[in-house]
Amino acid sequence: MTLNPLINQAKEKMEKSIASIRTELTHIRTGRASPSLLDEIRMDYYGTPTPISQVASINVSEARTLIVKPWDRTLLSMIEKAILASNLGITPINDGTVIRLNFPSPTTEQRKNLVKKSKEIIENGKIAVRNIRREIMKVVKEEKEGGKITEDDEKSLEEELQKITDEYVKKLDGIFAEKEKEIMEF
């Protein structure tokens, strides 16, 4: 087994972890309205739990207002009920053609809690990245014990993996800094 596939495997897994963390962070409500806030909300559509985005267009009309316009007006009340039942904490305004969601500016305490929650998500991402390193290092040790790689190769692989791990941890710190700035901005 060559050394490069293990490094590539580590990078690939770490990229997936970071993508997952970014997705998770989009669901944290900041002072801005974002269509991704409704991604997890499901409504009953003919007996099937369906994401709102599959039955309506969701647009940002102002910095703190989302407009949900169903393709079928009869779905307005079902969408409204789904939003009310969610943990979004927003009361929808149904005008008969669209639903408006006005997001109030979070208080300082709410912002601090959102930053804290974001930090927890980032820490989980760092743990995932380190676990990937540990997993790959286990394979490297098995390769060395099996005589497939030399001790020098093991050391260089270990150094390379540490370098990559540090790089991805730094990326996660950067993602947190962006999210913190976004939360505290308004």
Please, could you describe this protein's structure?
The protein has 186 residues and is of the alpha+beta class. It contains four helices and six strands. The protein has helices at 4-26, 76-85, 108-145, 151-185; strands at residues 42-45, 48-51, 56-62, 65-70, 93-94, 99-102. The strands form two sheets. Strands 3-4-6-5 form a four-stranded antiparallel β-sheet, covered by helices on one side. It has a two-stranded antiparallel sheet with strand order 1-2. Helix 1 (4-26) runs antiparallel to helix 3 and helix 1 runs parallel beside helix 4. It is elongated and about 70 Å long. The mean pLDDT is 87.
Topology:
Elements: H1 4-26, E1 42-45, E2 48-51, E3 56-62, E4 65-70, H2 76-85, E5 93-94, E6 99-102, H3 108-145, H4 151-185
Antiparallel strand pairs: 1-2, 3-4, 4-6, 5-6
Helix pairs in contact: 1-3, 1-4, 3-4
Can you summarize this structure?
The chain has helices at 4-26, 76-85, 108-145, 151-185; strands spanning 42-45, 48-51, 56-62, 65-70, 93-94, 99-102. It has 186 residues and is an alpha+beta fold.
